[in-house]
Amino acid sequence: MANTLRQISAITRINIKSIPQRFWMSLSTIVAIALVVGVLLGFLAMGNGFKKTLSSSGTKDVAILLRDGSDSEINSVVMREQTQLIEEAPGVARVNGKALVSAELYVVVDGKRRTNGIKANMPLRGLDSTGFALRPGVTFSKGRLFRPGTNEVIVGSGLVREFSGFDLGQTIRFGTSTWTIVGVFDAGGSVYESEIWGDVSVVQSQFKRLNSYQSIRAKLASPDQLAALKAYVDKDQRLKLETRSEADYFAAQAKQSSDLISNLGWPLAIIMTFGAVAGALNTMYSSVSVRTAEIGTLRAIGFGGFPTFVGTLIEAVILAAIGAVLGSVVIWLFVNGLSTSSLGGSFTQVVFTFSLTPRIITTAILLALLIGFIGGFFPALRAARQPIAAMVNE
Amino acid sequence: MLYQLRNVSKRFTKAKETLTIFDNLNMDIPEGDFVAMMGPSGSGKTTLLNILGGIDKVTSGEVSFAGNRIDGYSEGQLSEWRAANVGFIFQFYNLMPMLSAAQNVELPLMLTNLSGAKRKENVATALNIVNLSDRAKHYPREMSGGQQQRVAIARAMVSDPQLLLCDEPTGDLDRTTADEILTTLQVLNRELGKTIVMVTHDPEAARYAKRTLHLNKGVFEDKMVMA
């Protein structure tokens, strides 16, 4: 065993030392593998960042009620009478006898990306002071809260980062109405940082939705009161609403969107993997071919076929590992933490940051090592099995 | 007897055609012998050398080394046998270009259980025998053909094998350098008792051997092939 390991070590050392003889070909393989790793990491970091943003947006003790069959706020319509019924519902938290229920309007307005000026859908949320009470993580980084009854809005910090025209003090036109930005808020990196908030009654008035909302949020007395609220809603024929916790709502949206991103990323990475495997095979066949006499000589001296096979395979895996590290470092340095936006479940832009995790990096590195393994396997087999007598005189 | 070949045949099949290299060949090589094998191209001498070195297999017949049949050995057994008993010297030296002279010489010792220090000591001794102590750290590209072949000789003998197999060891060298190499081989044979089988086209080189065998179309033309 020790002898076999010593042989593998010697052959690997020789193989690695000979890489400069095939520098450009080895480099092209490394770059191809780095590209595969980079693309995969980019997509997975995007999916993860998106998921993180959405899943950090909801809590278990706030229920969200949407029209039956609606899976996002944009598709939902809730009437004022229904809101009043929810205020009477069991399980809803109350302060001084007043139910903590927020009927919210959610409309789509236009924004322009800072990077390229392209128009994108922005969410304008109308809410009142109870809506703020249901989002305790919201803090102002600049300015103040809008005054009720005015055309003042506040904007999330993510939105300000990605879209132009939303800086503090600026005025902006949505349709026929003009609004003044009076505050910029942070919301712990959640989806709310991608939104514009204004007074619900003014938004209703300006967008001609006088008696309707998109969603109702209700603070629960405790998370386990969701069942009581749900039973109440299901029982009342006037409330054709779907009840779920805010955490579940955003988790479902997160899954849907991040699955979509991952489902795009993986096929692309797999297609590129085929290219990288072909490159690795080419490099390793060339490596074996160029060194036929050397490999034959080693085997003639007494080095075994198995150590020759493993040593050649290790060379391929090392090239793949270098590619994996290169791809990971580039993505880590230039993409991880990068802020961007994408269309969310409500057809509006969600600002999020690319987010790498050790698990994602491990996945990409394993894919790279697999490329190295496949790319090295057959050339290694050739190195180990070719007749020695024919090799030594090559 | 170090080597005994009995009724050895070697055939190649290529494009549905069978080519017989030799048929029912018999040969003995006593310990301490220095045999030069000559013959025209295609006579089968390199194939025979490869069979003696265990890097090619016979189609039929018996090959015995020090009384043990080796023709039935597996690839793994042959690798171990070669590591223990055979040193190869090739026409074009076959050194690893990325390794220094000392590292090249050390390669066969990687297959032994010797310690690092002992390996270094043996490498130094082998390089000393071929008068290349001062070139230990040089790479093949920094050495002349003759020096490279001396490194190859040091590599072949460093693990103290009984048998040295040389395939045209002077084929790529000028006369003076060739004579130096052949003298070294002669010294290894006479003073260290190494058994040497050398394939050559050069009658001058063959003169350094104790005997010369002539192979033509797979048949020895000499009488003293067997003991």
In a nutshell, what does this entry contain?
The complex is a heterodimer of chains A (394) and B (227). With 394 residues, chain A is of the alpha+beta class.
Q: In the CATH scheme, what's the topology name of chain B?
A: Rossmann fold
Extended strand count of chain A: 17
In angstroms, what is the radius of gyration of chain A? 30 Å
Q: Note poorly predicted spans of chain A.
A: none
Describe the protein:
The complex is a heterodimer of chains A (394) and B (227). Chain A is of the alpha+beta class and 394 residues long. In chain A, 52% of the residues lie in helices and 22% in strands. Chain A has helices spanning 2-17, 23-55, 80-87, 129-133, 157-162, 200-206, 226-235, 246-290, 292-301, 305-334, 358-385, 388-392; strands spanning 62-67, 78-79, 94-95, 98-99, 101-113, 119-127, 139-143, 152-156, 163-164, 171-174, 177-186, 196-199, 212-213, 215-219, 241-245, 339-343, 349-353. The model of chain A has no long low-confidence stretch (mean pLDDT 88). Chain B has a single domain (31-57, 81-220), classed as P-loop containing nucleotide triphosphate hydrolases (Rossmann fold), CATH 3.40.50. In chain B, 33% of the residues lie in helices and 26% in strands. In chain B, 50% of the residues are buried. Classes of the chains: A alpha+beta (394), B alpha/beta (227).
Set down the secondary structure blueprint:
The complex is a heterodimer of chains A (394) and B (227).
Chain A: H1 2-17, H2 23-55, E1 62-67, E2 78-79, H3 80-87, E3 94-95, E4 98-99, E5 101-113, E6 119-127, H4 129-133, E7 139-143, E8 152-156, H5 157-162, E9 163-164, E10 171-174, E11 177-186, E12 196-199, H6 200-206, E13 212-213, E14 215-219, H7 226-235, E15 241-245, H8 246-290, H9 292-301, H10 305-334, E16 339-343, E17 349-353, H11 358-385, H12 388-392
Chain B: E1 3-14, E2 17-29, E3 34-38, H1 45-52, E4 60-65, E5 68-69, H2 75-85, E6 86-89, H3 101-106, H4 116-129, H5 145-157, E7 163-167, H6 175-192, E8 195-199, H7 203-206, E9 211-216, E10 219-220
Parallel strand pairs in B: 3-8, 3-9, 6-7, 7-8
Antiparallel strand pairs in B: 1-2, 1-4, 4-5, 9-10
